[in-house]
Design a protein that fits this description.
- This protein is of the alpha/beta class.
- Helix content is 47%, strand content 13%.
- It is built from nine helices and five strands, in the order E-H-E-H-E-H-E-H-E-H-H-H-H-H.
- Strands 2-1-3-4-5 form a five-stranded parallel β-sheet, sandwiched between helices.
- Strand 3, helix 3 and strand 4 form a beta-alpha-beta unit.
- Helix 2 runs parallel beside helix 3.
- The longest helix has 15 residues.
- The radius of gyration is 18 Å and the shape is elongated.
């Protein structure tokens, strides 16, 4: 690790067994420390507010009482812009991923991920600022200046960062679902990306669509 510094992790999960399991796994990683564990988003915010040292990364469950993951990440972004967030949840559907990324998450993993995957994600978020679970975005240093997008492709990318279905995107753009899927497939090929979540991360990382 850089200068042998500890990477401080905070965990918010309302399932004690799951929270302890995640903590035990991360504690086995060299160079990681877990100074904060919370039952929900509200408790996490309270603990961070009282902590002498801010966590580098918060691991957030999505479904939690008091403050859920979506609400918690927005509160973190409002109070501590330096803290990064990894969403770790049973909600592995595309819209949950998109909503967390659009709210400011630096990466997303399902809870059934293996420990090595989790370690890579935390290290990537700490050192590069982002983690793409599919490793779909090849260019980590910024947008490829040789890539050119049409106005309609940019419009489609922006709509992808919402909770709209492809049919609803088509209605807004005045085109058919088949044409929307054509834009999607063309961008998949152009960017070497395999999912809508990958498109969302590309749009957010490269300033095409601002974080909510």
């Amino acid at each position: 690790m850089k200068d042998k510094a500890l990477i401080n992790i905070a965990i918010a999960d309302d399932h004690p067994i799951m929270r302890k399991g995640i903590s035990d796994i991360i504690s086995s990683f060299e160079g990681f420390s877990i100074p904060i564990q919370a039952n929900d988003g509200r408790e996490l915010i309270e603990q961070i507010s009282k902590s002498a040292v801010l966590p580098d990364i918060c691991i957030l469950d999505i479904s939690m009482p008091n403050l859920n993951g979506f609400e918690t990440i927005k509160e973190i972004r409002k109070r501590w812009s330096s803290i990064k967030v990894l969403a770790l949840s049973m909600y592995n559907n595309e819209f949950s991923i998109i909503k967390m990324l659009a709210s400011g998450a630096n990466g997303y993993l399902p809870k059934n991920t293996n420990p090595q995957h989790l370690q890579r994600a935390l290290a990537a978020i700490y050192y590069t600022g982002y983690y793409d679970s599919e490793q779909a975005i090849k260019n980590t240093s910024g947008p490829n200046q040789q890539l050119k997008f049409t106005e309609r492709e940019i419009e489609f990318l922006c709509h992808c960062c919402s909770e709209l279905s492809y049919r609803q995107i088509g209605d807004l753009m005045g085109i058919s679902v088949r044409t929307v899927e054509g834009y999607r497939d063309a961008l998949f090929d152009k960017l070497d990306i395999k999912s809508r979540a990958g498109l969302v991360m590309y749009a957010l990382r490269n300033g095409i669509m601002p974080i909510e």
